[in-house]
Amino acid sequence: MNKIKIFIELTRLNKPIGFMLLFWPCLWGLTLAFNQTKEFGLFVKYIILFFVGSVLMRSAGCIFNDIVDKDFDKKVDRTKNRPIPSGRISAQESFVYLILLYFIALIILIQFNFLTIVLGLLSMPFAFSYPYMKRLTYWPQLFLGLTFNWGILMGWTAFIGEISLEPILLYIAAIFWTLGYDTVYGFQDINDDETIGVKSTSIKFKENYKIFIGLCYFICVLFLIILGFLEENAIYYFTFLIFPIMHLFYQMTRLDRNNSNNCLIVFKSNNFFGFLVFLTLLRSEERRVG
User: Fold this and answer.
1) Which helix (H) or strand (E) holds 212?
2) Whose CB has fewer CB within 10 Å in the chain, the N or C terminal residue?
3) Residue 91 has what pLDDT?
4) Which phi-psi region, left, alpha or beta, contains residue 137 (left: φ > 0; alpha: ψ -120 to 50)?
5) Cα–Cα dist 97/66, whole Å
6) Tell me, what DSSP letter sits at residue 85?
7) How far is CA 4 from CA 7, 19, 23, 102, 138, in A?
């Protein structure tokens, strides 16, 4: 039982917000493609595969991140009790779990068409290099955006078999969404991060954080609006788009970077934003066929 508990903590399965923020972009890409194909049975199958893949990849990513950051994590109050920095599991044993998760994820990946498999493999350099970005640049959150939203492109190509303008617009919107919400997340550790010398947009823009995060969310909304003009029945898309826009506005009015608990609550609320965008895309399709 103790090993199971350590594994759950190591992979953050007890904190589902991480794999949900990875899964929502996958679902957005799938839904965008489903709007064109109308293949409901395949849609459901792919939702299941992408959800399992998201859980596996996020779990593996957490392990790899903890192995790379074990010395940093010991110095940060929020992370010092994680399994690896606290010494409850070795980096070597954790690496075995990492390989196992990646192998299962590979089995999931090869269920798709060739282009989707290639895109999945191309995402790996992003996943492996992300933990090092905080050592090199103040923009690790941007790199996370590039990595975490790759599923939009994969979800689209799983159905369509080629890249088009629609998923690219959605991908850009999602990158800026992630840049915003991960900056919020970073405020929890800002004091420790400054002490140990790692970098983030949370540190870079701490004096003007609402302007920066607001700009990120504005660009996200802008690209969602541009995407709407490519929808056949755009009026329905724009009607439902009001709700995710209102949610981002709510985040901005609620956010206080000096309150760690507040930052965590605002960050977690992005799970609801992901759901609202999904409903916007899905409802757009329901209205179109109705």
Assistant:
1) helix 209-228
2) N
3) 86
4) beta
5) 12
6) T
7) 5, 19, 24, 19, 36
Q: Structure tokens of 231? A: 């929808």
Q: Which residue has the tokens 């290099």?
A: 129
DSSP state of 290: -
pTM score, two decimals?
A: 0.93
The residues of the chain scoring below 70 in pLDDT are: 1, 232-233, 283-290
How much is the pLDDT for 283? 62
* Residue 111 and residue 66 in contact, taking contact as beta carbons nearer than 8 Å: no
Which structure tokens are listed for 266?
A: 């605002």
Distance spanning both ends of the chain, measured CA to CA: 51
As a whole number of angstroms, the distance between CA 188 and CA 193 comes to 10
Contact 280, 28 (CB under 8 A): no
DSSP structural state of residue 233: T
CA–chain centroid gap for 223, Å, is 17
Burial of 9: CB neighbours in 10 Å, binned 0-12, 13-18, 19+: buried
Tokens 């895109």 label which residue?
119
pLDDT at position 23, please?
98
| Structural tokens at position 183 | 């900056």
Phi, psi of 91 (to 5 degrees): -65, -35
Torsion of Cα atoms, 246 then 261 then 212 then 166, to 10°: -50
Which has the closest alpha carbon to 74: 203, 191, 192, 184?
Answer: 192
Length of the chain: 290
Distance CA 60, CA 54 (A): 10
Burial grade of 125 (CB within 10 A; 0-12, 13-18, 19 or more) = exposed
Q: What is the CA radius of gyration of the chain?
A: 19
Measured distance CA(281)–CA(285) in Å, rounded: 7
Residues 90/200, Cβ–Cβ less than 8 Å: no
Q: DSSP letter for 199, please.
A: -
